């Protein structure tokens, strides 16, 4: 996905609504998809995605002062907001829209789940994931390894019929 330039971000800072709409349109689907994979509830994911864009708009100065790619900064903001929601008591047992692989993924601890999502679905480098999660590259590698192990463990616990149905649904 092509990055949106700092020029557009400066326009947002100056109150250009069309510039911000361009940002939202560009990142809306990927932000929502990551939110649903992180928290597993469509309604809560929509709220988190909206809050992420509101945060981005309100804190555009922070981005402009940083030397980060916008997508990395946006994903960092989204992860921080998601962690706050989880601390406030978002109950992952209340997953209302979990389909396919999602219920299994929700068994993986949060940071490991985010690392797997960013690695497998968004093809971020270990360095980029470490920036999103505010950790080291080596810890990201550990998160990905341990997250995959946990995911495999959950798969192993499924009976063969459940596993076959799941694999058929996810292609």
Annotate the secondary structure layout:
Layout: H1 6-13, H2 17-39, H3 42-58, H4 60-65, H5 70-87, H6 102-105, H7 110-121, H8 126-133, H9 137-157, H10 160-170
Helix pairs in contact: 1-2, 2-3, 2-5, 3-5, 5-8, 7-9, 8-9
Can you put this structure into words, describing what you see?
The chain is an all-alpha fold and 171 residues long. It has two domains: 97 residues, RNA polymerase sigma factor, region 2, helix turn helix motif (Rna Polymerase Sigma Factor, Chain: A, Orthogonal Bundle), CATH 1.10.1740.10; 73 residues, Winged helix-like DNA-binding domain superfamily/Winged helix DNA-binding domain (Arc Repressor Mutant, subunit A, Orthogonal Bundle), CATH 1.10.10. 75% of the residues lie in helices and 0% in strands. It contains ten helices and no strands. The two termini are 24 Å apart. The mean pLDDT is 82.
User: Which segments are poorly predicted (pLDDT under 50) over 5 or more consecutive residues?
Assistant: none
Query: What proportion strand?
Result: under 5%
**Sheet with the most strands?**
none
Taking the alpha carbons of the first and last residues, their distance comes to 24 Å
Shape: elongated
Count of helical stretches: 10
What is the H/E string? HHHHHHHHHH
- Name of the CATH architecture of the largest domain: Orthogonal Bundle
